[in-house]
Request: fold
Amino acid sequence: MIVKVQYLNQKKYVKIGEACFQMFITEVREKFSINKDKTLKVTDDGGVEVDEDVFPELVTKDVCLLIHDEESTAQTSSLTDTVSMSSRESSESHECTLPKRACMEKEVLQSPSARDLIKKVLLEKPGGVAILKEYENTGGISDSSRRQMVNMLAAHMTETEGRIPQRVTKEKYALGIISLFPALKDPLSKKGYEHFYDAQGGSGFLAWRLKTIQRKTKLFPMPCSTTVETGGGPTLVRNINEEHQLQDGPCKEALSLMTHTNDQETIFQKMRETFEYRQKLVHDPESSATVLSVFPRLLDTKGLILQDFSLLFGPEISAKLLERWPSFKPKLIKEASALVTTAYLEQLLKSAKEEQVGSSEESLEGWDSDMSTLLLLLHILSPQPAGRKKTNKISARQAVDHLIDFHKSCRSLEEHLETDERQQPYLLASGTSRRAIDNFYIVMDKKLISCQGRTSLAAFDELFKVHFVLSLNYDEALRSMYTFIQTTVYGIDVGTTKETPKVKELRAKLLNDV
Reply:
């Protein structure tokens, strides 16, 4: 497929294998030698921005696509300013000196106008009045009502603008939703409505519904799937500000000393002084797998994971989960109570509320209140399939085994490790019952890292932190749950970490006390 492209004052033909927007951007960078750190925007020759969902249909037409970056945009703005000054001198009839499209977007994206539009659509659509009354009575809307509202609004967009609405229209509808329903606004995101429509990533509830409509009525092949790299998270390389870090010979001496001493104070001191070396090790793909062999005291000395995490982010951030959990816990229980009930979910709710599950023997089979609430969070943010194949999807009940496993204290731990095939770290709770745990371990590469925490919440705190300390990706089944804990509870890499709309929606509900 051949596409005519212009960048600055150059015009070239770009060849791509299929109508994939990300593939097109990659080929454009190579053809025009554009640095990867520059953010690119694509428009048609009329100045209308081309989104990823529109690209497959537009590229089949005889149109020249214009590529813009910060430099070319600055040149265009300078030229626009010059033309505008000349126009004002020759005629006083021009009231807007901005480009016509910018003026239109500024006028369209007005909160009162957007709010009135959403309210008008809901009043006209069947079921819309019930959604307005539900919000008025409860201060929020349920998941089923939110899905119904999104379907109504997406249908209205396609009725008025066709199957591929403009980007500014989608933004207006998203802005209108949080303007009409303030409790649905995400207080930690840039605009507050990205969980309904994120123009940069082409995601959100509205975008997903529109893509479903487009897929059912598609005229051309859908764009190829692409992996979106996150700008934050556990594998991000971070600046080390810790003083008195050992290098070369002294570092090797410290490694040898830690191997042969059992003095806790010495181990913690030398681990602190080799922190920078350890971070370089875990971020090096060729040596990251050796970290537990180079630093074997991570396995048997409790508290080292917590110390490293505190060195990365500071003690204030490190303490956030344990400090903020009492305020999040009742809200999560309330949110989970609205889910479709199953026998397992009902047991988790009773355990989370610290209610008696049944007989004394049956009650011991359930987890304690904190762990039950964490598993409820996993149900609220149920696992998403990797890619588009529905066969990759697992249930929330199955995902529990990716987070924690119970081990009878009378059985051999070595036998458990020999038969375990899980790749990502998880908690192993050893005790006489799920409510009588003697020790918590983090299982990683068939090795046990002893947890300092004696409670399930403290053990989960260490499990979460081990991802950052050892630069480990989240388990796909737990990604949404971990991301919520990372951004909403700890406040780490907010705005740079890729989040699903469901994560943003849950945050909006909890932080707005819905």
In short: The first strand starts at residue 2 and ends at 7. The two ends are 50 Å apart (CA to CA). The chain has a mean pLDDT of 84. The chain is about 50% helix and 10% strand.
